C-alpha cells in the first residue's frame, strides 16, 4: 500500500468511527509538560553519560596528500543541558534542548598515502552551546491510537562552538594543530548532515512502530477490559488534551452498553499537572460488565470481614442476638456466612454536588454446621440508594455528606416466624448507630488512591471535584528523588521561550 492510500484509508476510517463521544478526557497542563521535560532532561543526561559514539573514519585531503583517519572507542565523557522544554502548538509539540555541552573522548589513528607521518593518540571533542528544536506532529490513526511524525523541515540543530584537541604520540602533532580548524569544520558539517535525519528516522520509524503496537484496550478483570483508545485528534493549546473512549467491555465480546455517553463540557482547568474527567457513562459501563460477568459478588465470612469493621458473625454474638433473635434460638453458637450479589448493574450518577449509586441485589444468610456443611437460613432482596460528596486530602479520596437509604424484603426463609419488619427496623437502627459513624469517620481520613504503575514516581496535590455527569480529578506528580527540588524551588516555574534562546 502506498503512503497516500494509507493516509486516505486513515481518513475514511476516522470519518466512520471518529465521532464516538468520549467517556474520558485527560489533560497535561503547562505545569505537567514542564515536569515531563525536566524528567526527560534528567533521563537523557543519565542515559547519555558514557554512552558510546560510533567509530568515525574517512579521508581528509591536505596539501601533502590524503590522510586516512579513524576515530574509535568514542564515548560521551561529559554532558550537560541547561534546559529542556515541551510546548504544544496546533497539531503537535515543540521539543527543545537548550544550551547543551557535550564532550566526547576517544582514540584516533591516521595514515598518509605515502608519507611516514602516520600517528595515533587520544582525542577530545567539545560541543558547546548545542541547540536542538523539533516539532513532532501528533495525530490520531482513526482506530484509537496516536501517531507521530517529524519532518526534516521542522527539525533544527545548531552547535555554536566546536573544539577538537588531538594528542599524538609522534612528532607530527604540528600537522594536526594546523588542521584543527578545518577538522572542526568537518565535524560541524557531519553533525549538521546527520543529527536531524537520524532523529527523523527515530521518530518516524522507531517511535511510530512503538505507538502502532501499544495496547489501548487494557484488562481490568479476567472477564472485563477497558478501551482507552482515542476518539478524536488530541487538542493542542497551552495544554495537551486527549479524548478517550472509556468504555468497559466484556473481554469475550465487545458490545456497546445500553446507555449513552453524557457530553463533557469544555473546561479550561490547568490547576494541576494533569486533569482527568471521568463520565458516569464510563463508570456505568464498568458496572454493567462487572455485574454481567458476576464480579459483584461477595461472600462474607469471619475470615474476610473488612479491616476496621467490628462484626461478629457468631449467631450467639451480641449483633445477631439483637438483629435476628430467631436465628440465635434455632442455630445457637454457629458461625454465619453471608452471600451477597447484585441482581442488576449498579447505577452511578455524578451530579454537581454529589455522586449517587443505586443498587439492588440479594443477601443470603447461611449458618456453618458443626460438620462444616452450610444450611441456608433466609434470603433477602435488598435495594439501596447511596449518595456522598467526594473530595480529597493530600493523596486520599475523602467523602462526606453521606446518605444511605435501603429497603429489604424477605424472599425465602427456613425460619417460619422471621419478622421482616422488625429486622428492617433494626437494620436501619444499626445503620444509624454503628455503620454511619464509621463511614463518616472513614470518610474524614479517606482512602489512599492507588499508587502509580510508574516506578519512581508518585502523585501529590490530589483535587477531586464534582460536575454534572462527571467527576474531575486533578493531580500533580513528583519523582521520588526529586523531592528536594520541589521543596527548594516550589512547584511552578515559567517555561522559557524557545525562540529567544534559539535564534
Ligand atoms: C441514545 O441516543 C440515541 C440517539 O440520540 C437515542 O435514540 C437512544 O434512545 C438513546 N439511548 C438511551 C438508552 O438513552
Ligand atoms: C460462638 O459464640 C459462643 C459464645 O459466645 C461460643 O461458645 C462459640 O464457640 C462460638 N462459636 C464459634 C463457631 O466460634
Ligand atoms: C445530591 O445532589 C443533588 C444535586 O446535584 C441534590 O439535588 C441532592 O439533594 C443531593 N443528594 C443528597 C443526598 O445530598
Ligand atoms: C451436617 O450436619 C447437618 C445438620 O446437623 C446435617 O443435616 C447434614 O446432613 C450433615 N452433613 C453431612 C455431610 O454429614
Ligand atoms: C432509591 O431511589 C429510587 C429512585 O429515586 C426510588 O424509587 C427508591 O424508592 C429508592 N429506594 C430506597 C430504598 O430508598
Ligand atoms: C489516608 O488514608 C489512610 C487510610 O484511611 C490513613 O491511614 C492516612 O492517614 C490518610 N492520609 C492522610 C494524609 O490523611
Ligand atoms: C480544585 O478544583 C476545583 C474545581 O476545578 C477548583 O475550583 C479549585 O480551585 C481546585 N483547588 C485547588 C487547590 O487547586
TrEMBL record:
InterPro entries xref list: Bactericidal_perm-incr_a/b_dom, BPI/LBP/Plunc, Lipid-bd_serum_glycop_C, Lipid-bd_serum_glycop_N
Give the signal sequence positions. Answer: 1-18
Please report the stretch or stretches of sequence annotated as the Lipid-binding serum glycoprotein N-terminal domain.
27-253
UniProt GO MF annotations = lipid binding
Keyword Disulfide bond assigned: yes
Q: Which domain of life is it from?
A: Eukaryota
For this UniProt record, give its keywords in alphabetical order, as a comma-separated list: Disulfide bond, Signal
Q: Which GO terms describe its cellular component?
A: extracellular space
Domain (Lipid-binding serum glycoprotein C-terminal): give its ranges. 268-475
Keyword Signal, does the record have it?
yes
The UniProt entry's coiled-coil ranges are: none
| Protein family | Belongs to the BPI/LBP/Plunc superfamily. BPI/LBP family.
In terms of PANTHER family, this protein maps to: BACTERICIDAL PERMEABILITY-INCREASING BPI PROTEIN-RELATED, BPI2 DOMAIN-CONTAINING PROTEIN
Q: What is this protein called?
A: Bactericidal permeability-increasing protein
Native organism is: Holothuria leucospilota
The organism that produces this protein has a lineage beginning with: Eukaryota, Metazoa, Echinodermata, Eleutherozoa, Echinozoa
